[in-house]
Structure formats: C-alpha cells, structure tokens
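Work Package 4 report. The design task specified in the project plan requires that, given a folded chain encoded as structure tokens, an amino acid be chosen for each position. We show below one input record used in the internal validation round.
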C-alpha cells in the first residue's frame, strides 16, 4: 500500500543524497505533495541529474500472458490501455505472483518495488482489482494493483513507439509539471534520464519539467490544460496558465493594431478544448477596447475552422485551395499557435511549388511567434529557427547558380548561419552538445560555413 508522505519524503531525500550527490532534496508543496527541490544553485545548461531507469516495460505482443491481458481488457471494456495494466503486473514481486513456477513473466525485485511503491498514492480506483484477480490471484491485496497502475500512468516516460514502451525513473518522478519549467529532460543513448537546468535555479527552488512536449508547450492554454487533465488527471495552475494567453492572440477588432490576448481560464476544469469564454472581456494592449461576446464567438468559430484544416492536413498535405482558405481564416490571428502550425504546413506547400519568398516569410513568422509566445529557452523556437535557416540555405544554393550571381548569396548564407547558431545554442543547453538535436544543427552550420568559403573564394 502507499507509504505516508512524510516518511517517503525523507526516504527520497536520503536516496537523492546517495545517488544525486546531494544536489537535490525532496520537499512538500501545498496542493502537490512531494516535490524535488534544488539543494544547490544551477545555471542554464547544467546537468542536474542523470538517472538509470527504475523499471522498463514494453508491449509484448509475442508473449502469451500479454495477449491474454489484451483480450481480457477488450472483453471487460476496461478503462485504461492494456499496457498500463501490464506495467503494473510486471511490477509485482515473485512472492506476490505466488513463487517459482507460477509467475508468467519476470518479476520485479523487492528493493526496486519498494522504491516503485514510493511513487504510489493512496486511493487508486479503477479495474486493477479485476486484473489482479485474473492474472495475479495470489496478490494479498488486489487494490494495490490499482495504485501501481496509477503510478505508471502519472510517472511513466515513453521511450519507444513500436512496440510502445514506458520507463519509470525514481527521482525524476517527483518533478512537478510547469508550462514554463525551469528544467528540461531527455533520454540519452543508454536510456538514462538526463535533467538539465533550463534557466538559473536557486537553491531551495522547486525543480519543474514539462509533461508536454516542446511543441505542445506553445499550444493555447486551454488545449494544454485539457491535455494534461486527460493524461495526468490535474488542472494546471502554473504561472503561464494563470496569465493572459500569449499563444492565443488576435489583432484588436477595434484599432486593428493592438494585441488582444485571451484571458486566463478558470482555476478548475472547464472546457476540454477551445471555448469563447476566455475571449470575452479580453482587452487590447493598445487602445484598451474589450472583446464582446458576439465577437468572441466569431473568433472561436474561425479557430475551430483552422483546427479542422490542421486535422485534415494530418492525413493529406495542404492544397492551394487550403492555402487560400487558411489565409482568409487567419486574418487577425496576430500571435496564435494555430496560425503558427498552419504556417509550417503552408511553408511546405510553397516550397513544393517553388515559391521561395513566401516560404521564407512563413518560416520567419513561425520563429517570431515562438519567441513571442514562450518566455525563455524553447526547443520549439530552436527548431523553428532551424527550419528558417534550412530555407535560407536552400535559397542561397539556388541563388548561387541563378541570375542573381554569387554576390547575392553571401548575406543569405550569413543569415542562415546566424539562425543555426541561435538554434544550436538553445539545443546544446537543453539537451547537450552531443545529443542528436544539436549534432544535426552543427552539421548544417558547418555545411553553410563551407558554402560561404566557396562563395568568397
């Protein structure tokens, strides 16, 4: 069963002292419970933690026990994906499975399970008892399987897609979410969890990460909150979610110059997607005019139309007719995540049609949105800069053999190099200079350097 939080916090701190060189400690935060705190200050790019997996579990379609579980979940219409029940079952000890000869899969060692159960919280409710009675009938308390299911759902980190695999990391599981986290993470080539400071972290400050990917951090606040509520069962109340939404901005309907940002959504779960309420009463930063209910509804209708286009483009690339429709819908979307996602898709279309100027304009607009919508170091901004630099480098290569002559190429290559350098600085700080993201940009930067040398020769 779950360990009392006051006891477990001390146990986590002791573990951090031994395995994280005392750089972290566990504390209690109101409304969150156990959290990780910095024991010493950190600068942006510093490695805060490198941790081996506590447990790894993957789908095993070739294993009879896993196939039986999938069939059972389908027949009983259970509420969670079978992989979560599989992960919980794979977290039981040999004793809990009935001993040698009765276990249908490799059990977890007692010491690892002791730490894994520190990640559990009391009150897990679901269909774990039914799964336990069917697949682990000798488990002393079937309710404990529900707690293990929740521990995996709330703390698991995906490490593979096919087959789907999820990992648990002990200390990393105590990092709370923020839509503006002070740390970021990735899995290195050996499958270890690497945590880096995203900006300066003071001693005693809570260490936070994003449970959303870098792209999703630039979604509108309502969409971020809905995604977190669905996947992690909490309504985000971080600083970004409680401020005017910098990812959902429009040109003022009155002066057409000022920026209108959607108001923060309420403190409790509300709409599970975009709604018009945060737009009602939103004020222009220039003239101070407020958006009325009818205007808010009209803006929402246009947003939903853009969402429909983006959903359609997931199955088939945009057409010229799509581009014309999107251009009309996006008028007045001055600083909006849906517009940015559309720009990325339409930039591809312009590239396919050989319209290099409009392509570069959209890629630059995408980069500028990322910089304006997210304060601080952002992987999404770095990738937008990389895409813009890719477009510039391609334009330079086309120009080197065109009528413009080599003299026009040098400034374009210089712009590309500048954008690559900015992207490389961010990605190196967030993920390390040797990680794939940074390595790819470095290779492109070196190539642009060679092109520049050839032009100047």
């Amino acid at each position: 069963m779950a360990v009392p939080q006051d006891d477990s916090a001390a146990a986590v701190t002791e573990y951090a002292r031994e395995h994280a060189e005392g750089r972290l400690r566990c504390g209690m935060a109101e409304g969150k419970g156990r959290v990780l705190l910095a024991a010493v200050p950190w600068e942006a790019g510093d490695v805060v933690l490198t941790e081996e997996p506590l447990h790894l579990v993957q789908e095993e379609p070739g294993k009879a026990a896993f196939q039986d579980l999938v069939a059972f979940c389908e027949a009983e219409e259970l509420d969670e994906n079978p992989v979560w029940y599989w992960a919980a079952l794979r977290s039981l000890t040999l004793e809990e499975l009935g001993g040698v000869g009765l276990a249908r899969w490799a059990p977890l060692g007692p010491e690892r399970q002791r730490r894994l159960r520190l990640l559990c919280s009391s009150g897990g409710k679901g269909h774990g008892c039914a799964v336990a009675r069917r697949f682990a009938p000798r488990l002393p308390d079937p309710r404990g399987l529900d707690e293990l299911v929740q521990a995996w759902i709330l703390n698991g980190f995906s490490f593979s897609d096919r087959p789907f695999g999820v990992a648990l990391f002990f200390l990393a599981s105590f990092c709370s979410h923020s839509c503006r986290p002070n740390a970021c993470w990735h899995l290195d080539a050996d499958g270890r969890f690497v945590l880096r400071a995203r900006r300066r972290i003071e001693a005693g400050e809570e260490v936070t990460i994003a449970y959303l990917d870098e792209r999703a951090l630039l979604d509108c606040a309502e969409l971020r909150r809905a995604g977190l509520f669905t996947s992690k069962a909490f309504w985000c109340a971080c600083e970004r979610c409680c401020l005017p939404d910098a990812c959902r901005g429009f040109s003022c309907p009155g002066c057409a110059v000022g920026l209108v940002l959607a108001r923060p959504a309420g403190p409790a779960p509300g709409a599970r997607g975009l709604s018009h309420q945060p737009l009602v009463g939103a004020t222009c930063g220039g003239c101070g005019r407020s958006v009325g209910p009818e205007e808010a509804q009209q803006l929402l209708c246009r947003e939903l139309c853009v969402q429909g286009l983006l959903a359609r483009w997931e199955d088939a690339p945009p057409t010229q007719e799509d581009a014309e429709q999107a251009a009309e819908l996006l008028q007045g979307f001055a600083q909006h995540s849906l517009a940015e996602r559309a720009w990325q898709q339409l930039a591809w279309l312009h590239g396919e049609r050989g319209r290099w100027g409009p392509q570069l304009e959209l890629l630059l607009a995408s980069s500028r949105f990322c910089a304006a919508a997210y304060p601080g170091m952002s992987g999404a901004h770095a990738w937008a800069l990389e895409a813009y630099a890719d477009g510039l480098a391609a334009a330079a290569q086309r120009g080197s053999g065109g009528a413009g002559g080599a003299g026009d190429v040098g400034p374009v290559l210089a712009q590309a190099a500048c954008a690559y350098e900015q992207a490389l600085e961010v990605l190196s700080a967030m993920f390390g200079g040797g990680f794939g993201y940074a390595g790819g940009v470095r290779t492109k930067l070196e190539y642009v350097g060679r092109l520049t040398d050839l032009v100047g020769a």
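Confidence is low (pLDDT under 50) at residues 1-5, 400-406. Validation will be extended to a larger panel in the next phase.
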